[in-house]
Specification:
The complex is a heterodimer of chains A (431) and B (530). With 431 residues, chain A is α/β, with parallel strands linked by helices. In chain A, 44% of the residues lie in helices and 8% in strands.
């Protein structure tokens, strides 16, 4: 194994050691704590209860491995991968100690792969499938754009390329259709991302860094060849991968990548505010909003830091801190509040304190029961709002919550925000 | 090594999902080891538990304790795991992680709540405020367990009005070291939580006293705590982590900062406020806090706090800032009345009212300590003392003198005499002397800091005849016992021996703790002169 020059667990030793056990990583920010119910924001702890299933516990395991003080066992693998990489711990730690626990866990997975430990079977299967067929479902690559309606209005000189993502290309096609409905309503010149391939998020979260770099490079090369520099996406996972993970694995700043990635909610909120988009069709529904981790607290621009730490951890050169505070929190809410007839009710754990839907970090693939337990926990919280529907801006959140609704015989409806907005703009959101 | 048979016995109590002997799982409950240096106790005593259990009920805790007693196995209770005594100090120990015990019941009419060990102060305060009530949230933070903290600590600026922790206990369900259950106060009689004493002698004294037993006198599985009247107007939470705070409803709650001519005048001012029985908090502001408030990261804090040290030392010596919170509990008029009284007292003392933001990010439902950790990059620990305010001031000066001898390696705070405040409207004074230490010190510097914490610090409290708070946990009972008694330590030991003759409940116990620490650290043992 060649030594990692970036994204090495050793680079985050300071963050693993610096934990004092304050538990800011597991509890909702106290200012937003609403009562005895729902105090935790860490899905892994909620499900497994032992402290090792938290950032503070995993940091200790990581240190043991770094210090060669223990074996990597099957139990160690479970502890490492029974984590949604949802970043709730990271947001909490910024309030108390300003460490990077999420990067400890991400680089711990990279360390595990580099040291010959396989990811859990379900996740491995997905990464193998992507390698074979360029999408996570094993569907034919040449059918990726089959969802496209015949009357889609592509521009010859597009302002931006639409990166659809595996999920909306093959599974939740209504999201892709609603997205181009929004783009067309806003009179934005767009075209499909040419020869789109999986963004590689499952590969990165598995810890297979070299393969993730290879996958990223394919899409980046395609973008460069197209001559475009702006991408719009309706997938929160693809958004975060392009915005945060690609620069991270290339060891560059987000603003040095030579392209701009926009989520459809950012674009739509801006167009609603400047009057270009006018939601005029009533959507008579009471909804709450579920923040996708990838769109919200995980989407701060990536800023690499290489330097030394002096006394009290002071950095040289001075580190530009990422603190989960610049993500896409307000735009989805602004969109929902602009829709006539729609009543918006805020959920208890929200924004940077939101509970993950349960799917993230490869958990839906590796540990589906855990993913569903978390979704059920979230659905109970959704029920407490009194909303008849939950809206998200991530197809994987919608999928995981929908599955729990179906399995649990619950009545709450699940929508992607593009469907709701398209309905309000055109009356054709397919609700 | 605990046998497979005993493991099986324990597994039958909690079920297979709630017990583990896995090395990774157990190691998460060690506080010291190769992690950042945090505390003398943690460094010297923390030991990996042999088995971790997650009991879900009082009955399960009781059964576990009985099994432990039967097989003479030591056990340590932990709820939110913030204090070093929540980690075992010897091998072959059981760790009872109590976070699954989430009982919560609020009696708004009688102003109390009954909680399990899995409930923290953030939850309690939020529920209290939802019901027009409030309590204090300790310096350790809102994430601290209510029962654990009420048993060993329970201080914050709000204890100026809410009073000391032992007086807030209205009832407890307590599993004694041998596994028997005793219920005290209102939980014993099944009445509303209006009293804590119990029918005969007040057992709260044995349960807690000044700083409790830290789990070495059994496990409290339920507690009824007193809540206090608040007002009905909402504190609005705003911001995105880490920049979150409450907006005050200014006609019902306000901060007041005053610049006082000198420290003595400030202390007189504080006493006068207490005598008038106004206010919700009444505390000195250490100068370093003002610099933390100006910084957005630790790099900036160290830059502005360490520049021009001569001037900083002068600023610390000459600046006396008092921070007061007033609350119109019953009405807006109450706030108006209290403000008039406060301003009159300020005028009498020649203290100048300063502008301040009407928001709160650290007292009503929060924690001071962790924010200080963030913005200093240091591991922050406190020493201090609990007595009269005059005593707090004097001890703060003694500590400042002592600390200079250990600075560096401790972070220079320019001879600041600590944070002091009033409790119980002035019946009690409280000094918290903060020490900021580099988390990754050299071994030589660690030894120096350990000497400060474990030997020199406690000794100046003992020499002054003062009553320590944390120091009761880290100072030798044989030396500071006479300050409490004169034979406090002897009788405390008798009580412990009577309830726990085998010493199984979270050894080494509060009375022997510091001697055990010192005996395990050669450099300290060499300095032990008692």
């Amino acid at each position: 194994m060649t030594e990692r020059t970036n994204l090495s667990l050793e680079d985050y030793r300071w963050d693993a050691q610096g934990c004092c056990g304050c538990r800011g990583c597991i509890y909702v920010d106290y200012v937003f704590c609403e009562g005895a119910k729902n105090p935790f924001r860490c899905p892994s702890l909620i499900r497994y209860n032992f402290d090792v299933y938290t950032a503070l516990g995993r940091g200790k395991v990581a240190l043991r491995m770094l210090n060669k003080q223990g074996e990597f066992t099957d139990s160690t693998r479970d502890i490492l991968y029974k984590c949604n990489l949802c970043g709730a711990c990271d947001a909490g730690c910024k309030r108390n100690l300003d460490l990077d626990p999420l990067m400890v866990m991400e680089t711990f997975r990279i360390w595990a792969i580099d040291n010959g430990h396989e990811p859990p079977e379900g996740l491995k299967k997905v990464t193998d499938t992507i390698a074979e067929s360029e999408n996570r479902y094993g569907a034919p690559h040449d059918k990726r754009a089959d969802w496209l309606p015949a009357d889609a209005k592509f521009s010859e000189n597009p302002e931006m390329l639409y990166f659809v993502g595996c999920n909306s290309s093959y599974k939740n096609k209504a999201i892709a259709e609603a997205t181009i409905g929004i783009l067309e309503a806003a009179n934005i010149g767009y075209a499909l991302f040419p020869d789109e391939k999986c963004c590689g998020n499952p590969i990165y979260v598995s810890g297979a860094l070299d393969a993730a770099i290879e996958q990223a490079q394919k899409n980046i090369d395609t973008l460069k060849a197209s001559g475009a520099d702006t991408i719009v996406t309706s997938c929160a996972e693809c958004y975060k991968t392009w915005k945060v993970d690609y620069p991270k694995i290339m060891d560059k700043r987000t603003d040095e990548m030579g392209y701009k990635i926009i989520h459809i909610t950012e674009l739509a909120a801006e167009k609603i505010e400047d009057g270009t988009l006018k939601p005029s069709h009533e959507v008579p529904m009471t909804v709450t909003y579920h923040d996708s981790c990838n769109l919200a607290r995980l989407s701060d621009n990536w800023i690499p830091w290489h330097g030394t730490r002096g006394r009290f951890g002071c950095t040289e050169p001075i580190k530009e801190y990422r603190r989960c505070d610049t993500g896409v929190y307000k735009q989805p809410r602004a969109i929902l509040k602009s829709i006539p007839g729609l009543k918006f009710k805020e959920i208890s754990r929200k924004k940077e304190n939101a509970l993950c839907c349960g799917a993230g970090g490869g958990v839906a693939d590796a540990y589906p029961d855990f993913a569903q337990d978390t979704a059920n926990d979230r659905l109970n919280e959704i029920a407490d709002t009194g909303a008849e529907a939950v809206v998200s801006a991530c197809p994987y959140c919608v999928d995981n919550l929908s599955e729990a609704v179906k399995d649990g015989g619950k009545s709450v409806k699940t929508y992607d925000i593009t469907q709701i907005l398209c309905e309000a703009l055109t009356g054709k959101g397919g609700l | 090594m605990i046998s497979k048979e005993i493991y099986k016995e324990l597994e039958e109590i909690v079920g297979p999902d709630n017990i583990s002997q896995d090395r990774d799982v157990c190691q998460a409950y060690v506080m010291g080891g190769d992690r950042a240096w945090h505390n003398t106790d943690a460094k010297a005593l923390s030991t990996i538990p042999e088995i971790v259990l997650l009991p879900g009920s009082t009955e399960e805790v009781q059964k576990i304790v009985k099994v432990a007693c039967k097989h003479k196995i030591t056990y340590t209770p932990s709820s939110t795991f913030w204090f070093p005594t929540a980690s075992p100090s010897n091998e072959d120990a059981l760790l009872l992680d109590l976070k699954r015990m989430k009982h919560f019941e609020i009696d708004a009419k009688n102003m109390n709540a009954t909680v399990g060990p899995g409930i923290n102060f953030g939850q309690l305060q939020a529920e209290a405020m939802n019901n027009g009530l409030y309590t204090m949230v300790p310096g350790g933070g809102s994430q601290v367990g209510v029962i654990a903290n009420t048993l060993i600590w329970g201080y914050s600026p709000l204890t100026y009005r809410t009073g000391l922790a032992n007086r807030r206990i209205m009832g407890a369900e307590w599993i004694l070291p041998d596994g028997e259950i005793v219920q005290i106060g209102s939980l014993a009689s099944g009445e509303d939580g209006f009293w804590g004493e119990g029918i005969g002698p007040d057992l709260r004294g044995i349960l807690r006293g000044s700083i409790g037993w830290h789990g070495s006198m059994g496990i409290v599985t339920k507690m009824t705590v007193k809540l206090f009247p608040f007002h009905e107007e909402k504190l609005v939470p705003v911001g995105t982590t880490p920049w979150t705070f409450f907006l005050f409803p200014e006609e019902r709650m306000k901060w007041y900062n005053f610049t006082c001519p000198d420290k003595k005048t400030m202390v007189d001012f504080m006493y006068d406020i207490g005598h008038c029985e106004i206010g919700a908090a009444n505390t000195r502001v250490p100068i370093s806090w003002r610099y933390m408030a100006r910084a957005r990261d630790k790099e900036k804090f160290h830059e502005i706090w360490m520049e021009d040290r001569e001037q900083k030392r002068k600023e610390v010596a000459e600046t006396a800032i008092l921070r007061v919170m007033l609350i119109g509990y019953t009405s807006r008029k109450q706030l108006q009345y209290e403000e008039k009284v406060l301003m009159q007292i300020a005028e009498n003392h020649g203290c100048e009212h300063r502008r301040t933001r009407q928001v709160d990010g650290s007292w009503m439902q929060s924690c001071d300590a962790v924010t200080m950790w963030w913005l200093t990059g240091a591991n922050m620990s406190v020493t201090g003392q609990l007595d009269s305010l005059d005593c707090s001031v004097k001890m703060g000066e003694k500590f400042a003198d002592l600390k200079e001898k250990y600075t560096p390696p401790l972070m220079d705070d320019h001879h600041d005499p600590g944070w002091f405040q009033l409790n119980d409207f002035g019946h009690n004074g409280y000094l918290e002397f903060m020490n900021y230490a580099e988390p990754y010190e050299t071994e030589e510097n660690v030894e120096k800091i350990l000497d400060y914490y474990a030997i020199a610090g406690p000794k100046i409290v003992i020499d002054a005849g003062a009553l320590s708070f944390f120091n009761q946990a880290i100072s030798p009972a044989s030396l500071d016992g006479p300050n409490y008694g004169p034979n406090f330590h002897l009788y405390a030991k008798k009580v412990k021996d009577a309830f726990d003759p085998e010493g199984l409940a979270n050894p080494p116990g509060i009375l022997d703790r510091i001697d055990t620490v010192i005996d395990r650290i050669p450099v300290l043992k060499a300095k032990k002169d008692w």
